[in-house]
């Protein structure tokens, strides 16, 4: 496409003046896509609750924490709701920590339109942060911001720094990437300059087509498919000017970033900043909504967690054992069972013999007797009558489920929908009081379609018979009843038809767990590709992604010619996978995910066994107050709960010894609170048949010639070791 030269920036280029300028941010409150329909027809995405707090609060809290002084909040769809919320919240008060200026446009249909509109307001005076209102982060900005300013001083053509983070090594193991296009980036390993960006990369093709000039002009580059785009950028004011001069730029990445990388005339440069230990994620679809909610509850996003960050007039929730958060005025029947990693909002009442696990319950909800809720997100003022069953669904404000109603996995019930008595809503159904618009633009930039263009003749939820519980597709319902009922036992709401791909692809975007058959399919495909690639010709791309010549050395182990993965990063990935597994993922799925991680990092089976054991033991800390007695009990419970997983990965004596050595290492370094109870835990591992007598005695014998400092836990276990050796003799005497 034809490019125009960017105009001269209105901001000053004087370094001293730039240093005096307040740090500004442009926050896009409109994400310009349809992925949260039908919910976003009635409420803007940035105001949807994420663990009972509007998404935009997480973004604004982060901007305050990194020192932003001026925020320009761009609103388009449902602008009045956004402005009203900001005005009534503490963000609109003088003590908020920064000033917020709302910029409203009713005609912007893309991010490009939004930035062009902001440029016309002439409010940006220096480098600014560009972020969307559905982004959660706890990272520090200091290092990246300084690096961006230093590059700008040396090279005025530097216009943007993009934040990226390393993702899981396989799409299989990272649920938030399922449903999103894979990304490939080419990055200069020295300067971190972005050289190539493809947001619709197809890894199944096993080939990459690059322009020859890219290879000719760069001595080396890394091709990365293991990075996620954090959708947070540090921009120069010139970014707005470039958008103004290029009206065909609509999408921030697909048009702007790729356009600059292909433009030889302007010569503008984009750099990357990779974050490591911090948390950053964007709520892009329902699946990432589920994953990020679990991350928040499990405190990966600290301090942006329910007992620290709470919005407006909402009551602060208190953290209890096993990752359970409850507001002070929650009313629970004595027989209610609350499972791990659950949050319950203020004023909610739960009746007798009901159970709630791995779920978020909003405020002022009324839940009856004998109700089962697993993996769900129940928003405010929801009524759930006796005997209902809800599994991995989203239930919006004001919804009413009558007695015996069932929600199968993946169901979305928009605002004030009613589900009749003994009705089963099929998996992946979306139900709304609003009829489905007939025209839905396929451009991902458009957040809302023209609702005046007509509607689809959608079936009513009333068309579901109480006896009809096995529908495969919503389109199979009787369309003759596709009218909105005024009430009655059947329910109130329209059932939306699926997108172009049909229900068979809905699992990609859903809050429901990934079907086991899909995991197996990915796993088998990955294994087949590894086998075929190992038999093929060698390429010039290393495992790290660097393009090199044949004479250049690689990161392969010289001893056996195999690439050695980073064990510490592998352990971290396993730990994150295990933490999410505690949120309700089936054990079979966890085994598949950890196996794919082991193959991706190319670690040994023994190292994998040690990493799994470490994750299990660490989980005991969360469930205890670290006192000796409670920690031991929590550890026993953790071993019992994960016995099947441990047995799956610990299959021989060598792996059992690796587990003991890993436990020694943990007690000496990262989790010293386990040191006093080492021998007790070792005894429990033996009693529960996770570790055999042969492995324990072999571990003792290997320590015979070790230094005294390495025998600390052998000495602590002397009584247990003596019992092991004498127990068989006593058995023989008894016989």
UniProtKB/TrEMBL annotation:
PROSITE patterns: W2 (PS51363). It is found in: Cytoplasm, Cytosol. One of its GO terms (cellular component) is cytosol. Its main location: cytoplasm. Residues 560-734 form the W2 domain. Residues 529-563 are annotated as: Disordered. InterPro entries: ARM-type_fold (IPR016024), eIF-2B_epsilon_N (IPR035543), eIF2B_epsilon (IPR051956), LbH_EIF2B3/5 (IPR056764), NTP_transferase_dom (IPR005835), Nucleotide-diphossugar_trans (IPR029044), W2_domain (IPR003307), W2_eIF2B_epsilon (IPR044123). Coiled coil: none annotated. It comes from the Eukaryota. Keywords: Cytoplasm, Initiation factor, Protein biosynthesis. The keyword Cytoplasm applies. Component of the translation initiation factor 2B (eIF2B) complex which is a heterodecamer of two sets of five different subunits: alpha, beta, gamma, delta and epsilon. Subunits alpha, beta and delta comprise a regulatory subcomplex and subunits epsilon and gamma comprise a catalytic subcomplex. Within the complex, the hexameric regulatory complex resides at the center, with the two heterodimeric catalytic subcomplexes bound on opposite sides. Belongs to the eIF-2B gamma/epsilon subunits family. This is Translation initiation factor eIF2B subunit epsilon. It comes from Rhynchospora pubera.
């Amino acid at each position: 496409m034809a490019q125009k030269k960017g105009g001269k920036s209105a901001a000053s280029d004087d370094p001293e003046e730039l240093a005096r300028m307040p740090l500004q941010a442009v926050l896009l409150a409109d994400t310009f896509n349809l992925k949260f329909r039908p919910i976003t027809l009635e409420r803007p995405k940035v105001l949807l609750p994420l663990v009972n707090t509007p998404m935009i609060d997480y973004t604004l809290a982060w901007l305050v924490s990194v020192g932003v002084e001026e925020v320009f909040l761009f609103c388009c769809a449902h602008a009045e709701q956004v402005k009203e919320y900001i005005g009534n919240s503490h963000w609109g008060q003088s003590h908020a920590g920064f000033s917020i200026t709302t910029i409203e446009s009713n005609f912007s249909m893309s991010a490009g339109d939004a930035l062009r509109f902001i440029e016309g307001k002439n409010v940006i005076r220096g480098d600014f942060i560009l972020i969307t209102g559905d982004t959660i982060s706890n990272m520090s900005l200091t290092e990246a911001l300084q690096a961006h300013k230093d590059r700008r001083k040396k090279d005025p053509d530097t216009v943007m720094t993009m934040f990226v983070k390393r993702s899981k090594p396989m799409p299989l193991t990272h649920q938030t990437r399922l449903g999103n296009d894979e990304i490939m980036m080419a990055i200069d390993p020295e300067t971190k300059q972005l050289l190539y960006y493809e947001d619709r990369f197809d890894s199944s093709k096993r080939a990459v087509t690059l322009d020859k000039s890219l290879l000719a002009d760069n001595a080396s580059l890394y091709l990365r498919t293991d990075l996620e785009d954090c959708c947070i950028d540090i921009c120069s004011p010139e970014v707005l000017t470039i958008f103004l001069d290029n009206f065909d730029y609509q999408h921030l990445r697909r048009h702007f970033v790729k356009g600059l990388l292909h433009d030889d005339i302007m010569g503008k440069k984009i750099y990357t900043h990779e974050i490591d230990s911090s948390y950053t994620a964007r709520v892009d679809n329902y699946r990432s909504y589920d994953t990020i909610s679990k991350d928040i509850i499990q405190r990966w996003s600290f301090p942006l967690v329910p007992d620290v960050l709470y919005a407006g007039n909402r009551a602060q929730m208190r953290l209890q054992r096993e990752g359970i958060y409850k507001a002070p005025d929650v009313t629970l029947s004595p027989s209610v069972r609350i499972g791990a990693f659950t949050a319950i909002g203020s004023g909610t009442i739960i009746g007798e013999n009901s159970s709630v696990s791995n779920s978020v319950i909003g405020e002022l909800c009324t839940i009856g007797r004998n109700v089962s809720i697993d993996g769900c997100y129940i928003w405010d003022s929801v009524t759930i009558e006796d005997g209902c069953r809800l599994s991995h669904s989203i239930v919006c404000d004001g919804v009413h489920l009558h007695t015996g109603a069932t929600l199968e996995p993946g169901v979305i019930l928009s605002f004030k929908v009613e589900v009749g008595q003994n009705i089963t809503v099929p998996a992946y159904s979306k139900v709304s009081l609003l009829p489905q618009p007939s025209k839905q633009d396929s451009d991902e930039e458009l957040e809302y379609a023209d609702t005046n263009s007509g509607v689809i003749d959608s079936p009513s939820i009333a068309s579901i018979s109480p006896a009809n519980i096995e529908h495969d597709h919503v389109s199979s319902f009787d369309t003759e009843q596709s009218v909105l009922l005024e009430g009655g036992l059947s329910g109130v709401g329209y059932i939306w038809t699926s997108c172009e791909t049909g229900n068979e692809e809905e699992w990609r975007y859903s809050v429901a767990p990934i079907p086991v058959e899909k995991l197996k399919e990915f796993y088998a495909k990955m294994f087949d590709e590894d086998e075929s690639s190992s038999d093929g010709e060698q390429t010039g791309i290393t495992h790290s992604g660097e393009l090199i010549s044949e004479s250049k050395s690689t990161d392969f182990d010289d001893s056996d010619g195999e690439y050695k993965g980073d064990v510490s990063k592998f352990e971290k990935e396993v730990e994150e996978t295990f933490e999410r597994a505690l949120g309700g993922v089936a054990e079979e799925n966890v085994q598949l995910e950890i196996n794919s991680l082991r193959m991706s990092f190319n670690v040994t089976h023994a190292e994998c066994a040690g990493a799994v054991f470490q994750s299990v033991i660490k989980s005991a800390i969360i469930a205890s107050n670290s006192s000796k007695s409670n920690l031991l009990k929590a550890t026993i419970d953790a071993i019992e709960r994960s016995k099947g997983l441990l047995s799956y990965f610990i299959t021989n004596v060598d792996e059992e010894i690796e587990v003991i050595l890993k436990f020694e290492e943990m007690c000496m370094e990262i989790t010293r609170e386990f040191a006093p109870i080492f021998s007790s835990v070792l005894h429990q591992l033996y009693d529960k048949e996770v570790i055999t007598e042969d492995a324990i005695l072999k571990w003792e014998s290997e320590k015979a010639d070790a230094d005294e400092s390495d025998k600390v836990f052998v000495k602590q276990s002397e009584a247990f070791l003596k019992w092991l050796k004498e127990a068989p003799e006593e058995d023989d005497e008894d016989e």
